[in-house]
Design goal:
Length: 742
């Protein structure tokens, strides 16, 4: 490596905006701009593909702090760069807070090659998911970067000149579906088609998903929520000794504006754009699961990859001694309401909307986005250290730090800055980042979904700042109420279940818990796989009951990949590290649908689409929803013994609806509400064996069979009652009475 640039290159002052690397058409230069208030020196690192494969750099170019710095932004334009070059940055000083504070940072000046936070394409020598990086590199030798095959030298690709033929979106525009009309399918890009049974040309890729979109459309799905597709390192926990040591889910972002390259069969950007366009052509919106609560750099003892080396005290919530606040449960917490970090997050969100046409975002651990930032002074020459604004008060602010139980003693003057009026981590009543996202003109029509809690005990379900209805929330209370009631758990669960079905505005009632300490699962009398037909039949009924509760309730339903075909993870409720059939959709089960669950789900979604009363925008209250017990004229039993809940909705173009759930151990004969000139027709009944659980003529059930079943049930219908098996649900639709309308 040389510290001189290539003779074919020459440098210019460059511009502070936009941040990242950008192509300048007029001069043929690449402009590099990077934020760092901590750096006293900055260097642009360039590497040829050949040198990169060896973990080495080819050139370093120093930024002139007089010419190439505006405020806290370092910028440099370089003319004559080969488009195949890769780039990164080095800074002085560089390291964690503890290194800087102890004075050891100077022992290894510029020891880290840092990834640009605004990188659009990340290159690490690995092209396939799970593939190790170069193994013949002399890791640890002078001039060799990267720590090993699982963390090889990671750089960003240069931007190219505008292509002669840009991507053809074919007039693609946002679909703009009302939020209340969505049926969301949570999908893992790799897991959706990685199984050999998928039969796609490139399993586990964006293009593989495209080949299976017709399946989702046929099911009735109109939105997909993709687990993280930002660049992450699936090998960060890998030790070579276990197939269950991958970061499969991807909640450990390395670069927030770069696509996960190993989810692509070819060029990731082109392939993902093709996926979004193909979704929109089928009426399916695309929502991204974004992880702006932490990064892959972990705790203060974690690796220095990008943000930490450039400006540790800006990008992360830090205690006065430099320990990371750990509201994410993953070692660090992004300093989201710091003005610089807020601007960065907004920039990232706009990129996905403008460049990739996505329709919305689901914010992982969204409550972190509402917490007060840590703010620091940085006296001249202090580099990455400085004094924390909490230090004068010496307050812990309820932090959960990875390296200590309480902050060190006060050690400096309090410094007030924008947003620094609250102790670090304090929940803000009017968080600047949430307001900025909610009011940003580019994001104005996007869906915004919050996972409204975090690992620091902040639970905001039902209380997340929504800014005039811009935000929706994941509803853990619905999940818990449905599970508790449908399994017949002891206790008074009928009221909570009823409230969940009608989207009650009641307070969350979680008591500060995250909802994951109890799964409320039940294997129907036998653990694991079973040959007992009674147990198997009850499990099948319960799967239908849960699907009905989800898809017939008010609010936006979300199916998890494989729910529609009974995909099981064998009791493992946290499969984040398994790149295996535990997380892969088995297309043999999805296609065969031997148990008929997918057909039942498809019928539920068709019913939901046909009845606007199931898709209200807000809480359904008042007199148009009527609760029923099994006895005519009575409400459900709301006490300890209540195991039956039913409700009816008024007449509409598709007819009125009666929906009943019997979670008791015995059969029930329920009285149907009388309606003048109309009778009730059973549409779905989970108590009947497939295919008779769905009374619709299709490939599984002929019109003659449907007629025969209805004829057999005519005496019950004329009596105005509905017989229900234990642990079953039924849906009836009101139709004109042929005896009175003839």
């Amino acid at each position: 490596m040389t510290n001189r640039q290539s003779p074919d290159m020459h440098t210019e002052a460059g511009f502070p905006l936009p941040l990242g690397a950008s192509w300048t058409e007029a001069t043929g230069a690449v402009n590099f701009a990077v934020y760092s208030s901590a750096a006293t020196s900055m260097f642009l690192c360039l590497s040829t593909p050949a040198d990169h494969a060896l973990g080495r750099l080819t050139w370093e170019i120093a930024f002139d702090p007089i010419v190439n710095r505006t405020g806290d932004t370092w910028h440099l334009a370089v003319v004559g760069l080969d488009s195949n070059l890769l780039y990164g940055f080095k800074v002085e000083p560089c390291g964690s807070f503890s290194e800087l504070d102890s004075g050891t940072a100077g022992a290894k000046p510029r020891s880290h090659v840092l990834l640009d936070p605004h990188a659009r394409t990340v290159v690490n020598g690995r092209t396939r998911f799970g593939q190790l990086g170069p193994q013949d590199v002399e890791y640890g030798s002078p001039g060799v970067y990267g720590t090993g095959p699982t963390w090889p030298l990671t750089l960003a690709a240069l931007p190219h000149a505008a292509p002669a033929k840009p991507f053809d979106w074919e007039g693609d525009r946002p679909l703009g579906r009302p939020m209340e009309d969505l049926v969301i399918y949570e999908m893992h890009v790799r897991g959706f088609t990685a199984h050999t049974s998928s039969g796609v040309e490139a399993p586990g890729t964006y293009s593989g998903v495209i080949e299976k979109l017709d399946y989702l459309q046929d099911l009735g799905i109109n939105a997909v929520e993709l687990l993280p597709i930002h660049e992450f390192n699936e090998l960060e926990y890998y030790d070579g000794g276990s197939p269950a040591r991958y970061n499969f889910w991807g909640y450990s972002t390395l670069a927030f504006q770069a696509l996960m390259a190993r989810y692509a069969a070819s060029d990731a950007a082109t392939e993902f754009k093709q996926l979004v366009k193909a979704c929109h052509q089928r009426g399916i919106e695309v929502i991204l699961d974004v992880v702006f609560n932490h990064t892959a750099e972990g705790s203060e003892a974690g690796p220095t990859l990008s943000f930490r080396g450039l400006d540790n005290t800006t990008y992360y919530m830090l205690a006065p001694g430099g320990q990371c606040y750990n509201y994410s449960g993953c070692g660090n917490t992004l300093n989201c309401n710091h003005p610089v970090v807020s601007a960065f997050i907004l920039d990232c969100l706009r990129t996905w909307v403008l460049d990739f046409h996505v329709d919305g975002f689901r914010f992982d651990l969204g409550s972190i986005l509402t917490r007060a930032p840590s703010m620091w002074t940085r006296p001249k020459g202090c580099g990455g250290g400085g004094k924390h604004e909490d230090a004068a008060r010496g307050e812990a602010a309820g932090a959960r730090m990875s390296g200590a139980t309480s902050p060190p003693p006060p050690q400096g003057p309090r410094h007030m800055d924008a947003g620094a009026g609250s102790a670090t981590g304090t929940p803000l009543s009017d968080p600047g980042l949430i307001e900025a996202i909610s009011t940003d003109p580019v994001l104005a029509r996007t869906k915004l979904i919050a996972e409204a809690w975090d690992c620091g005990g902040l639970v905001q379900v039902g209380a997340f700042p929504h800014y005039a209805g811009r935000w929706s929330e994941w509803n853990g209370r619905f999940r818990d109420a449905a599970r508790a009631f449908l399994k017949g758990s002891p206790g008074a669960h009928a009221g909570a279940f009823a409230a969940a079905l009608c989207a009650s505005p009641d307070a969350n009632g979680e008591g500060g818990r995250d909802g994951e300490t109890h799964n409320l699962s039940w294997n129907c009398g036998e653990e694991g796989p079973t040959r007992d037909p009674g147990v198997a039949g009850l499990r099948a009924r319960q799967a239908r009951n849960h699907a009905a509760a989800l898809l017939l309730a008010q609010g936006v339903p979300m199916l998890v990949q494989g729910d529609e075909c009974g995909h099981s993870k064998g009791g493992n409720n946290n499969t984040y590290c398994h790149d295996s059939p535990l997380n892969w959709l088995d297309w043999r089960a999805a296609s065969a649908d031997e148990g008929g669950l997918a057909r039942f789900v498809r019928a539920l979604l068709a019913l939901r689409a046909a009845h606007p009363a199931l898709r209200e925008k807000g809480w359904r209250g008042g007199g148009d929803l009527v609760w029923h017990g099994p006895v005519a004229g009575e409400e459900p039993g709301w006490g300890e013994d209540g195991r039956f809940v039913a409700f009816s909705l008024p007449e509409s173009d598709g007819g009125g609806l009666y929906v009943a759930f019997n979670a008791g151990h015995g059969a029930v004969t329920a009285a149907l509400p009388a309606r003048a000139g109309r009778v009730w027709e059973v549409a779905l009944d989970s108590g009947r064996a497939p295919p008779f659980d769905v009374l619709t003529a299709d490939s599984a059930l002929s019109a003659d069979q449907v007629h025969a079943v209805r004829a057999a049930g005519e005496p019950w219908r004329r009596a105005g009652v509905l017989p229900m098996l234990p642990y079953s649900c039924a849906v009836c639709v009101s139709v004109p009475d042929p005896l009175t309308s003839a």
